[in-house]
Each structure stands twice: as C-alpha cells, then as structure tokens.
Design a protein that fits this description.
The protein is an alpha+beta fold. The chain has helices spanning 2-86, 105-111, 116-120, 126-129, 133-145, 193-227, 236-263, 277-295, 313-330, 391-401, and strands at residues 90-94, 100-103, 150-155, 171-179, 185-191, 272-276, 298-303, 308-312, 336-344, 347-353, 405-410, 417-424, 435-438. Residues 208-427 form the Histidine kinase domain.
Length: 441
Amino acid sequence: MQLLWLLVGIGIGSIATSACWFSWNHAHKQRNRKFRKRSRHTIKSKSIHNFKSWAQNIQQDYRDRFEMNGKAGYVIERKLEKVIESAPIGYIQVDRDNRLSVCNQKAATMMGIANHQQGLLRKPFLLQLIRSYELDYLVEQTRSRGAGSQVDWVFHPAIPDPVDPIPQQSQPIRAYSINLDDGQIGIFLEDRQEATAIAQQRDRWTSDVAHELKTPLTSIRLVAETIEPRVDPSARIWVERLLSEIDRIANLVKDLLDLGQMDVGIEPNLCFSDVNLAELVRSVWTTLEPIANRKQVVLKYIGDEQLTIYVDESRIYRLLLNLLDNSIKHSPALQSITIKASVIDSQVQIETIDAGDGFPEESLPHIFDRFYRIDPSRTRSGLDRGGSGLGLAIASQIVKLHKGDILAKNHPETGGAWITIALPYQNLVTANQQVSEPISK
C-alpha cells in the first residue's frame, strides 16, 4: 500500500514539473518574439534615418561643389574675356549660325566696326558687320574640315555713306582660325600693314643696291677683258677666275633687278607664243649638260611630245633652267632627273623630280623665299660652291606672272625634291601618245 502511494506521488510530481517547464518555455519564447520585433523596428528606423542623412549629406556636398565650380568657372570666364579684350591682336568668334558672338576692340578697329559691344547684343551675322567673303570662306572651310586654317588677303572696308563717300584705307590682314565646340569658330586677326611696308622697303632697297652695282660691274668686266691677253700666260688663270666671279655677281644683280621690278608692281611685258614643251626641256638640258655630265646624271621626259603651251618662252626657259640646275646640284651621281608633263582639266602640270636628299619638312614653307638656302640638309658637291638662294624665288615669280601655281614637296618614291607647276592651258586638244626616254646618257 505504501508502495502504491509512492508511485502516485512520483507521477503527480512529474506532471507538475512538466507543466511548469512547458509554461516557462512558452513564456520565454513569447518574450523573445516581442524583443526581436521591437529590435527589427528599431534597426529599420535607424537604417532609414542614416540613409536619409547620408543622401542629404551627399546632395549638399554636390551642391557646394557645383556652386564652387560655378563661381570658379565664372571667374575664369571673366579673366578670359579680359585677356581677349586686352590682346594685341584681333579676335572674333562666331556661333554655328555664323552670328558674331565675340569681338575685341582690336578686331573692331581693324574691321571698322563701331560700337561693337552694343552690336554683339543683337548677335548679328558675320557678313553684316564685316563685308569680307575671304573671312566667311575661312569660317566655312574650318567648319567643314574640323581643323584650323590660315588666309591672307587685303581687306577693303565698306563705304559708310554711299552718298558722301570717304576713301577708306585698305589693309593687308592675316587670319588664323580655330575649331571650337558646338560649331563655334574662333578667328585671330593680324594686321600685316607694318610687315608689308617693311618688306616693301627691304625689296626696294635691294633693288636700288642691285641697280647701283650694275654699272661698276660692267666696268670691272671691261677692264678684266682688256688686261687678259696682256698678262703672263701663267697668271691668265687668275684673270679667267676674276671674269667668272664677275659673271656670277652680274647674274645675281640681274636676278635681284628682276625680283625688284616684280615686287614694286612693275610686271615685265610677256611675249606669249606657242611653245613645244618637250623641245624647250631639251634646249634647257643642252645648256646644263656639261654640268650634268660631271655627275653622269641623265634626264627623263615623260609626257606628250606634241604638247604645246602658250607662254613667254624666255621666262619659262629661265624657270626650267633654275629648276633643273638646282636638281643637278643636289642629285647623287649616276642618277636621273625626271620631268613629267600632263594636262589636267584646264591646266598644264609640269613636275620635276630628283633623287637627292629632298627638303627638310620645316623648310618647305620657305623654299621659295629669296636668299633661303638649305646647306646643312642638302649636301653640295665639291664642284658647286652654293647658289645665291634666288633660283627658286625667281621660279616662283615667273609662275605667278603666268597666273599659275608652284608647290614644293618630297617625292614619296625617290625621297628627292618634287616641284609641281600648274600653268593655264589654252589649247585643250592634246595627243594621247606618252613617252618615257632618256634625253642624255
């Protein structure tokens, strides 16, 4: 009986203990659930608050930077405007519609624009203020190419009052263009009046000096020719050398006189006639053949044997003589010099190509300047003591007298000098026969 009551007590105790444990476990889970819910709400609230604060801080930082950059950009823009306005050369700028947007005082003075600051408020077209089609063409050329360019021209200001015309002074202008963003074009304007006047004075002085040298040189030559047969044969070589130097100086003086007459606007009378180009080339080569034979240099003529050009024969003879003489001097031994003649559209194109050292790239813009020589780059032979630097300058002037163009480059195959001449062609009927043969061996 006691054993029975012991077992009943143990069962009741187990049931009570289990009930207590289940009650405590349920209460613990409920408390943890409520705590996690409150924690998630708190963390979420804090995260949203922190994100908003971070976004606001970033926004404020960008706002501060934008304002700072805006102020800096405004300061830079104002400084740039001040620099442009104070520049010693003219500057204008047009937008994509060719409306004038920037014009400094120097450009307004050069182009004859009155009250340019007030006029810019209306954004006028370029041609409305500056009647220069050369300038308008420069803008279009720069915009189409996407790169800057340069043009020289004589600007003739428009007459302000046609009823009471006042003579306006023309002035030479050089314009440099630059391609800006959004179709805008900037143009720097340089007044070339002073430079042109200095060049004219220099050329006039050179011509005057050459004219004064002509008479004494003639007298010296007469004296040398008189004493030549009377000197001892052993000393006659010195008289011959003296005569050679007199001829060299006389030719230089003649070249200076020819250039001087062209510079001051005195164009010589040209005697035009129909000239067979191939025969003229052979005639020039015959004159230079003794010099060419020293190096065993030959000439090749490629072109129509019956090609006839309407030119001043003596001038074109001098032109070819200067070009071929220059090519012979700078050609290596046992090489050939090529002359190509062809008709392209309404022009006769004459090309001279040698196998020498060619022109340095930095010298190409100055090849036809008088007294310009390239001794360091183009090695001369011991037989040639160097020219006067006038041969190509005279060639250029002769081409201009014939209303043609001349261009100097380096040939891509031979590496030598490549000079191209384009002359107006009168007779458009040409033969089709093309030949290529050495003229001399």
